[in-house]
Structure formats: structure tokens, C-alpha cells
Amino acid sequence: KALLTCTAVLRTSNMKNLETVVPTTEAKKNRTAILSVSERGAKLGQRIKSLVAPHADCFEKENRPSGGEAIYFDSLKNHIGQIFKDYDQVLCIMALGIVVRMIAPYIEHKSKDPAVVVMDEVGHHVISLLSGHLGGANEWT
To answer: Fewest beta carbons less than 10 Å away: which of 9, 66, 88, 103?
Structure first.
């Protein structure tokens, strides 16, 4: 794991610290995952982590790293089930269609699912996809 400052730009005036969005539960301990599949998305994810979610884990595609500290994957599809179980908040920096297809088999109930937020890789558009009220995704956006 290497640590390197990224140069992505993000407007954070309306974003809250992600630690305050969802109450801590004994099971997951209020963990946040930031997922990306492109180099541009990975750099944005690192920037978000440094600005509003220092406790988050960044997951980046092996051949498209940001240069920052991250957990690398070859295929996110192979890991999303475990991420869904281990994290309370999941920020996906990628196309909405990718996220919908990837998480569909793991959606259980609004009281159990993590908050899932989808952001474009430029950081201009953000959508609360899953667990908006109970999970805190609406406040996160």
C-alpha cells in the first residue's frame, strides 16, 4: 500500500462527515467503503476520503489505481457480497447501471442493507441508491 496525495477536485460544501450519517451498530461498527473502477474515480475516492471520510477503505481496480492507500481487486463483482456484509456505507464512483447489476443479488431489506450512494467520476452527480432513510444515504448526498 502506497500513500500519495491525489489531485482530484471535489466540492464538499454540502457533504457531511460520513462518520455521522449512520448510527454505530455492533455488527458493522459504522464502516465506509469507497469503490471505484477507473483511475479517475480512484483519485476522486482518495480525495473524498481525505476530506470527509478519513476512516473509509478505498477499493480500487488493480490496473487503475489512484496511487493512494487502497485495497485492490481484479473484479469487484467477486467482492461486493462481502463488502455489503462488512460496511454500513458504500460509495460507488462509477456508472449507476454497474452498481445496480452488481448489488442486486445482495439486497435483503431496508433495515439490513448498507447505505449505497453512487457518484459520477467527476464528482458532480450523486444519487442515493439504497437505504436512503434508515441507512443514511439521503443525508450523505
So the answer is: 9
SS3 71: strand
Contact between 19 and 49 (Cβ < 8 Å): no
Would you kindly state where each structural domain of the chain is located, as residue ranges?
Answer: 27-140
The β-bridge partners of 72 are 60
Q: What is the topology classification, in CATH, of domain 27-140? A: Rossmann fold (3.40.50)
- Count other C-beta atoms under 10 Å from residue 95's C-beta: 15
Bridge partners for 119 per DSSP:
93, 126
Of 81, 80, 104, nearest in space to 92 by CA: 80
* pLDDT tens track for 57-91: 999 999 887 888 999 999 999 999 999 999 999 99
Cell 458493522 belongs to 28
How many angstroms separate the CA atoms of 1 and 124, rounded?
28
